[in-house]
# Entry
Amino acid sequence: MADEVLRMQNITKIYPNGFVANKDITFGVGVNEIHALVGENGAGKTTLMKILFGMEPAQEGKIFINGKEEKITNPLDAIAKGVGMVHQHFMLVPSLTVAENVTLGVEPMKNGLFDFEGAVKATQEIADKYNFKVDARSKVRDLSVGQMQKVEILKALIKGAKILILDEPTAVLTPQETEELFEQLFTLRDSGVSIIFISHKLEEVMRICSKVTVLRHGQCMGTHDTEGLNEAAISKLMVGRDVVLKIEKEDPKPGKPVVSIKNLVKINAHGKHVIDGVSFDIHAGEVIGIAGVEGNGQTELSEVLAGLSDFASGEVKLNDTSIAGKSVREIRDLGMAYIAEDRMVEGVAGDMSIKMNIMADRFEKKEYKNALFMNEKKINEAVNQYIKEFEISCDGPDQPVRMLSGGNIQKVVVAREFTSGANFILACQPTRGIDVGTAEMIRKTIVRKAREEGTATLLISADLNEVLECSDRLLVMHKGKVVAAFPKANEVSEETLGEYMLGVKEMTQEEMEALL
Amino acid sequence: MNKTQKIESVMEVVRILVGLLIAYGVALLTLLLISDEPGFIIQQFIIGPFSSARRIGSIVNLAIPFTICGLSMCFMYAVNKFNLIGEGIFMFSACMVTLVSVNMANMNLPSVVMVPLMYIVAILTGVVFAFIPAIMDRKFNANVVVVSLMLNSVIAYLATWVMRYLMLDSTIAYLGSKEIPESVQLPSILGSFRIQSGLIVAIICVVLVSLLFYKTTFGWKMRIVGANPRFATAVGMSALGVSFAAQLAGGAFAGIAGATEMMCNYTRFQWTVTTQHGFDGLLVAVLAKKNPVLVPIGALFLAYIRIGADVVNTSGDIPTEFVTVIQGIIILLVAAESFLSGTKNKLIFKAAEKEEKEKQAKAAA
Amino acid sequence: MSIDWVAFIAEGIKMATPLVFAALAALITRQAGMFNMGIEGMILCSALGAVVFAHYGNSVWIGLLGAIVIGLVTGMIIAFSSLTGKTDLYLTCIAFNLMATGGTVFVMYLLTGEKSTTSGAFRAYAVPTIDIPLIKDIPVLGRIISGQSLLTYLAVLSVFLVWFLLKKTRIGLRIRAVGENPKAAESVGISVPKIGYISFAFCGVFAGLSGAFLSMSWVQFFMKNMANGRGYIGLSAQNMANGEPVGSALAALLFGFTDSLSITLKNQTKFPTEFLNMIPYLATIFAIIITSMIAINKKRKIEKGMAKGKEKA
# Structure
């Protein structure tokens, strides 16, 4: 293929823990092409792109740029060969200005010193060329998320990128910002930049990409023209079977309120009201979903409810007891279980055994103790039971958790949290980045526990499908406030939800009360 | 995955051994370069420590404080706090034991009362001094390394002051305290080896700490907090509280170490600077990978090199200080993550590849 | 009891010199995101390096150069172990300081046969003191500002050089970027370890000057463990000022005065010297407590919503 700007051939990548992230992947990108790279979480998209950008070495495989084989061993190589990457998590230095961030690595110099004015000029020039509106002199920490992303793209362009990798660029954007981004991507494409667009939003892929390469479990499922393809067909390639999006569930029979939150306010270290007067109840037997673009107070709300951080004012009651000033232990004893947003940070201790991780919240209980020492026999019995019940595939209870796959690590987390006997489950991003099977098990368990055991659940998730299908009532958070409430989550359309999530619309207090 | 686990643990042992070998090699090379009669000196360094029952006994005796200090540092290291206050506590505990026993000398209490009492004094000293950096760490998030090091300097002066103003023996020609009563001078055991009875204390400590680490809830808590404090907090532990308590426990063992050394090895308190035992403890804890069961092995190894250095010092006029350099190299090599990590990753990759191929072969068949 | 206050202040400035250099050394590695406790050992090695080079090179300037070279070499050792060997930086520094304590005595013994000081075996070399014309004749001020060691004036100059380096040069920009978000720097092809090495090199120069002051200005010989915690004090000084050069230097000056206080009281009163010797260390501990308390209170106040004048939402 003569007009191919990039070809990655037979790429294999095995991580030190033995996880095969990419297996014999081959794909090519043409000139003036927006090429989608799709796949489920953990399918190996990001790894593949990190190899292309020189951030991870591949064990096998070749990379051709403009038909020439290239060895890319570090990002500098990649940049020199015209590859630019916009990471999922922004790679910016907040206390520096836009111009400094954009020119970092290729700083203009004058008399041997850094030329700030030159940097501003260069940034402004490239921004004007591609019609990006940013102020080169403002500090990055004062920018909106959408603007930060523009800075990221400018960073790649100023280094002469001809192949631009965008890793889930729309995940954090509002629809308006997404529109703007697409316009800019078209401009870039027409001026000769090839774009690799990583996403799992298939309608976006269908809209802006001409070709799509599908990865599944680290293997390539082929490259296809998007023309003549539909979303269902792509998703079939991605998952290997039709995605089951519906969870069968009866209507809830809400009991007494288990959690009641009144006028909760939290102010962060920068003085910002990250939770700004939030009030709602969670009743026994129901699942409340919280939707919202990430960074609108959901994380902070979960931290407050889990007892991990203080709040400024308001009241939170769990089973009729206020949690203000209580330790995590006390709140857990009141009946809270917590599936943390980032499992490697708060969900497990990676170097510790499966046994210690599962028992971490309960090994101090009397039943696991023998006078001075712990009752190993009881503990082993319990752990083996959990491993069996949650089908954790491992070598045994003493294996360090970090050696498991993401899905199995999450099973360790839920094996602990679902069995702690709590009547309130705080589930944050419970299925992020794990395999479909485990995700389905977790979702079904959440709903089943609500219906059969009367558990009250707060489900905070960025996965709209998940909040819509699992929740009974649905709340939307925007800028630290609850801006919309829906009595039946599965009847809400994604479009309506989007408008509230992005702050286009907002319900009044009365409207919300009337609806619930 | 089972293979990965095996490779990791085998490589860990290999890493430590290779690290020790390299450091040992550096030691031999140094001797080769600076000595007039390298052959003899190197031979002395390697086998000198085993040349007499007395010297073998010295290795064991030297390993006693190293073991207890190593246990002390295991507590600090387990919760990832490099609280180095053990260095100061070791000295001050010996000072306090001397002060209390000297003042109680005329009460003529028997050993069975005095020795346990001395250990209580030592433990209290340890806990009180470990409390300072630990509480500052807990309440103010103050850097525990810098605070403990500063405090060690303060402690050294304080101990000197105590000796000079509260228990000085003006009848002797050198600077030293009054003699401690015989009731707190612990005897030697095992005849010609002249091994100190501190050995018994060290063994008891190893057993106690190992049980504490692996069989009690506190041990579990410490290890979880050390591995991931945020996780520990999220599942309801008080990460700050646990690491605080671990530091106090570490202080207590440093106190026991200082008291044992004082009562087994000296009749007067005469230190004016700290003794490096705290840092030796850190080396031992690093070598043992914070596992108290392995601490005695690390301590014996360190004692062996030290005695070797002493031997070459007396027989060849080589200053013993070169051992601290060797000690530093050992810590660096053993703690270095990337040391031999390439080999490890290659092995894991090969194992994974093999597994994959086997799977494919099975699938084909 | 009468205390000569002018001498006290002059002494304070003198004693602050090695601390200012130490603080600057610590500050540059901190800006690159590393808490470098190894400065203590680096200063110690440089102090020995200074007298050794001066003795064999027969010149104080060669001694000064030697101190800087040793500072650089030791900095590279720490950088190698922590950046390339990926050893925990705390552990690296503790191990390195241990090696420095024993290693300097070992080298001193090999060269001189002495184990505590080089004063008998090596000739004394001193960095010249400088009398500033005009100012030296002003009564009180003259005694304080004039007549200090050349290195003291260099320390003042260095504070501004470091400020300039961090704010106005490319390498300064990169050091700050690496310190604040190493991933961001890496993503644009800046080698994080390389910047780490460079910041350790700058750190080495200042640690070298600090060591040179100790063995060629404060006294004119090397003695066992003569850094005596000054590296840690410098580290705490820059910590108090959040890594800002001028603030760090002022904090170091403050610690210099505690040193001077201890010396002045020792000379002029009958207080037990043990307690006077503790002053600089206790001052450091208190300074750490106070700065940490201020930082924590500020955070708490804001989080409780008591800070005023901040925007809502």
About this structure: Residues 246-335+466-516 of chain A form a domain with the Rossmann fold fold (CATH 3.40.50.300). The first strand of chain A starts at residue 4 and ends at 14. Chain A touches chain B at residues 14, 16-18, 20, 59, 306, 308, 327-329, 331-333, 338, 340, 345-352, 356, 360-361, 363-364, 369, 372-374, 376, 394-395, 399-400, 403-404, 416 (CB under 8 Å).
